[in-house]
Amino acid sequence: MISKYTNGVEIKSTRKGIGLSRMNKGRKTTFEERIEIAQYTIANDLDYQKSMEKYDVSYSQVYAWVRKYKSGGEEALKDNRGRNKPAEELDDHERLKLRIKELEARNEYLEMENALAKKLAEIRRRHTR
């Protein structure tokens, strides 16, 4: 590319970047909207640009939703952030991992409580002398 430029050869522009590309924050979408957008995009031969314009969402979101929809169906488009499974839905391995996590948190709390009690005892001992 540089050698063409330095030799005086005319460089033609590429088609990259010609399409509409929005780097906006986007908007909140419902579960039903994500399903509709994914189905619309698939029905229109994966025309992400058309979906972006019609639904006012970013390319990366449309692409991600279509990919998730193809691999996991409608359930894959659910937003599960911040939600844990109820205890009755966990299998044995997950239940044990959760129990270990709870015990580690309790252990950390008790260690801090113990360190605080030792420090308090040391301070009281200094003041009684």
Automatic annotation (TrEMBL):
Coiled-coil region(s): 93-120
A Pfam family recorded for this sequence: HTH_28
N-terminal signal peptide: none
One term of GO molecular function: sequence-specific DNA binding
Keywords: Coiled coil
Residue ranges occupied by any Insertion element IS150 protein InsJ-like helix-turn-helix domain in the UniProt entry: 33-85
Entry protein name: Helix-turn-helix domain-containing protein
Record organism: Paenibacillus larvae
